[in-house]
Amino acid sequence: MDKFEPKILGFFCNWCTSSAADLAGTSRLHYPPNVRPIRVWCSGTVDTSYVIRGFLEDADAVVVGGCHPADCHYINGNYKARRRIKLLKTIFETLGLGEDRIYLKWISASEGVKFVREMTKITEETRAKGKSPLAGRWDI
Amino acid sequence: MNYRVKANRDIVGKAREFFTDILDKNLLDGIIVPLELPSGKSYFPTLVKDKKLIERANPFVPVFQVSVATQVSKMTRLSPFEGKIGVVMRPCDLRNYVELIKFNQIDPTNLVIFGVDCYGVFDPNRFKDMAISGEKPADKFWDMVEKDDESELRRACRSCTTPVPNRYADVVLGYFGSSGDLLLMAQTEKGEEILSGFGFEEAGSLDEREKIVSSIKERRASFWEKVKEETRKETSGVDNLLAFLGNCIDCHNCKDQCPICFCKECFWESPTFEFQSSDYMDWANKRGGVRLPTDTLFFHLGRLAHMSSSCTGCGLCEDACPREIELQRLFKMVGENVQKAFDYEPGRDIEDRPPLTTFKEEELLELGE
Amino acid sequence: MGTAVIYGTSVAALRAAANIGKLGHRVYIINEGRYLGDRPSQLLYRKPRTICNTCLRFVLRRMPHVEIIHNASITGYEKKNGGFRVKVHYRESDVNERKCIECDRCLETGLIRAYRRPMGGNAYLVDWDKVSDPSALEGACPTGALNPRPAEKDLEIDAGAVLLSPDCTPEDDAALADFGYGKAPDVVKVTEIERWFSGTGPELEAFVRPSDGRVPDKVAYIVTPGLKGRDLSVGFEPFVNALENALSVKRLKEDIEITFFVRDLLLYGKGQWELLKKGLSKGIKIKRVDDIDVQGLEISWDGKSSEFDMIVLSPSSRPPERNRRVSEIFGLQLDERGYLVTKEDEPIETEIPGIFVLGEAAGHLTYIESLNDGAAAALRASRFLGEPEVKGQSLPPLLDIKEVDEPRTTVHLCKCALGDLDVDEVVRRIGEIDTVRSVKVSEFLCLEEGLKGLRETATDGETSRIVLAACSPWERGLFLQNKLRSFGFPISLTDIAEVRDMGVFPHAGEPAEAVVEKVIDLVKLSIEKIKFSLPYDQPLEGIVRRAVVIGNCIAAYKAALEITERGIEVLLLDPSEEDEVLASSSGKELLKAFKKGIGEKGIKVYKPAEIISVDGFVGHYRVSFRADGEDHDVEVGAIVIAGAGRKELPSELKELSHPGMVSFERYDGRTGEKGVTFFLPGVLSAGSRSTFTREGIGEVLRRATELKESNREIPVRVLYLDTPVFGKYADLEARARKAGVEFIPYWHEPGPSFAVDGETIKISYYDDRTGEKKELVTSILVPYPVIRPDISVSKRLSELLGLEIDDDGFFYYREDPYEEINAKLAPNDLGTNGIFLTGFAKAQKDLEGLIVDSEASAFEASVVLSKEKQPPQSGWVVSYTDFRKCAGCGFCVDACTYDARFIDPERKVAVVREILCQGCGACEAACPSGAAKLRVMNAKSLLSVVDKIT
């Protein structure tokens, strides 16, 4: 019986979170391979439609990773991202689509360990929750 | 200053006189006001220059075919009017108007806004049927107002807690608690300029009006709470949501009619959504099959993400839907929750920035850590 | 003599190396350690979470003319041929850092160890104890980076300039035993806590006590400088570090009780008073003490004592151990503390022209000042280096790609990236991906054989997209993309699939199918990402090689001089008729010298100049101003704002009128029965500390000491809020105390109040040490003036330039200066606008810091202007507008942090000013219709990426 392996889609900012992912790699730290990392310039670049599309394309969780507040490489992209994620979570919560599957994480370039910890946690949490209700629907 | 025009229940008649006089005196170069179509089936906003056409006008007509705010944005986005133009709008549309100004879609230069009290409107098809069968919906409307019987009006209207225009109306034409008279209330200097030359009698106490408006608001607020909760249950979870939207044919009428959706080309109609046959097969392979047309749920969720923060619940989306999906209550429900999350009220203040165009450094601290 | 030798790998040294290298000069870095990151550096030691890789990566990866010699020491030097001959002894590195691609193959021999560099990546060293026969190492490294027989060598370098910057020495752990360190497990250091949260430290989920894993309720912070006989003057960074750390602990758990034990308040920079107030508002208690005693977790002070759950120490560092050696070799003096002595009033320079001392070798510096030292040192050193040897590469024009909108992808797969995975399987599956025409495999893509293959693909006339399935952009990826560009292939049609660092390295031990799935998805990601891209090259625009400096202060004059030195025309606009405000008399001579220099160089100075308007963008500003009754219009490429200052009485004294109050400048030494009280200004009415008065404090201390020594019977007092001990003034303070001057600290809430009391002045203040309201009576009150920015000037400039100022009149900017290393790496905030700050526009600094800062700003301005043509800051990723779709709503304009977009009032559409665009994509995310687009990685590509890999 195939164990359910969640698909985690990640939008990671180029300067902070992606660098942390690189650091995790070069430091040979370990995290589960369920995460599909997409390198974007800034967490503020992540359009709401990318996140929605992720769920409609069978992602079981979507993570947006960016720099800590006040540390954004583009000054304030992360603040914009934060509002966008709040908007999406509110919509998903109102419609019962699983707002807890949308994650926003501040992970800076030197936090390879935090990256690994968060990815592992998210994978485990999502594995326990099971498939996203939107995943695999042919009728959407 | 508030004025009263004795009307003996011919409120529409007095309003027509008022507009005719305005054109006569050249106080305005034109007025956008609902005019009855020659066929009699409905009323549409018309930019009127010739005062003779005012005979067909009814600013209070209980039908709302298109958003006047949208029409004004089409006319003024690229350049403002050179002459002074009056615009008659109902309260929900006035809020849409304020939002469109924030989006740089309307240039309000030289516009004089005539807000009207609005007890509600009929579903436009119903209105047409009533008109054809001789039932005279525009007249029946006044009986309904008198008896305070809104049962035949749209659900969107029965949920609406803004039956009177906000402060962005220069002049308000009112009838709540007017004892059959036409109330003309100036809310701005511009409005006062228009009204002062007429020698109207002062309105006196408007307590009755306030009382009636309060009671309407209260009733509708609790009605909406019920509807909202029912809607929430009905659409909660993917299965329910898809059942609710199930009949959708992806025609995008809702988006076309929505005053807030101002985009020249909708994202969901752009080349981004031009796919190849191989893409469709990929989807079919992945999921066993794929409903056609694709991406209907994506369209609705995405449209919510784009416009829910400014949704005024006007209901034009639902009116336009050929499959009669009750979009108004879905969108108003989501809209309210989103607006609450950002402490934003569409139409409240022109200086309010739409939530996604701004941010605070210290907010939403629970997100991200 | 175009070579610079830099001794040390401190923060200042690396910055200087990167800057000098960028100018095109050869550099040798002499590192005593075994690899870069081996020696403790100031940043690593004191702020490990803040560490940024940029200078280091830049030096390592992008500048082959910056040579780093490890295991090296300077054995001697002599003056020769107008320069210096530096003698170096070194042992060859086990592993050549430049050739090493971190493939880990050498680890299989069991004879190599990998050391994690704190700033990312690994350094590899041979475990010589295990090596009985060096031939076991031969052939272990595929790139030839491993040296099986490193030899001891001697080298003589002819250099035009020598920069000495040995690293600071951390405080001995053993020496901290008197604070309980090493005796109780719950006594820790700030840096250890920082590492709990940092990526290079041990994994800890929460802030807990090491002994039992329990979250502490009561935590004490001890800032050790000044206590138990330690030098107070090196306590500034430890104090602020501890404060920042305590605040982040508070963020974790609001109700942890935190108490600070400090000798005095040690704040040194902009925004730190705000930081302190924030801490106080969150309940952090600050206890100023003369000394403390620590027994286990119990702290006693002033007859009181208290038990804590955890104690956090914030120690400083000691002067570099190597300073003694350096002083011997170069004949430089050491001061009593062990720091190398630099020229009086000329920071960084020594008595020997061409030899510089930077960073912590010369004195306690905060890391920001160290970074500034590095930039300023580069500037000064470059004067001794002549013409740069290394010229930039010129790029060939782009190849014309046949039917470029038809994606025909070639994937280059690097075996090194795949580790143990089945290469054939991966190749087969990549071949099945849509648009892939061919898959080519190399052992090492970044070596000659791989590069040859890349050139063939780039020029084959068929391929219209290239995906490199390799390590990661930071590793070799960017290098490979640039190589493709040098073959004429547009970078925007290439992408790096991060197979190694994101796909293979972190998933060791996972089932192979899952890892292969991920690898394939990573390749698919890259293929999809560039499917819809357009071939785009860096657009170049001409710039105006002229700068304008606006200011009425010493920094303005210095900056103008420095820019002229770099061969760029400059004019100085002084908005005020008045004399420049100086913090102390020591600046007077310098200012005179600068003004003379300006006269000699013929730099036009307009004073007063009324600035009417500033339009344009970096490289093309138009400044209109009125001076001498005439209107002027000038085009400049960059603007340096130095601001103007004001001198005024401390706000506490504005209401006081009394013959006994004499401002310091006019103080003539009069005394009275009730003594003389010098009042050092505290909190300004706007709530920020003005430390321009640092200079003045030296003068006050001297005066107070003289006064006391000649008037033994009368009280002489210094009333102060935060410590009057700054670096070199530490001795003055000690002398003053010894002479009998009373130092009275007061607390800002409630602040001191002054009242007339007959012939004397009564001062009421709150003594935070004893917790009592106190009063003192003085015959003479001598306040030192507050020096602050002239807000009216700041306001005017802020309106003209659209920049924000804070309540004190300083412009907002990020404290950490970044460089424009390559267009995408790290833009300097305001620097990308071609606007640079210094002096009164930037932050409070003492005279030395001010000079160094104005040089650093001038340097950065001149770099922007030194090229004839300038690519847009973001290189090839720039946004544009699809005018057909644009409704002119302005969401993108709101979203753009860099003001790179505006709505054309005629056409009502959004227009992009490319030279300001950073390519961040905020506009694209804000635009609902997709009219605002990035040229690369736009919505269409990202959505199809999501489709393909989820």
TrEMBL record, chain A:
Keywords, ordered alphabetically: Iron, Iron-sulfur, Metal-binding, Oxidoreductase
Keyword Oxidoreductase: yes
Domain (F420-non-reducing hydrogenase iron-sulfur subunit D): residue spans on this chain: 8-127
Domain of life: Bacteria
Statement: the UniProt record of this protein carries the keyword Signal: no
GO molecular function: iron-sulfur cluster binding; metal ion binding; oxidoreductase activity
Name of protein: Hydrogenase iron-sulfur subunit
Source organism: candidate division WOR-3 bacterium
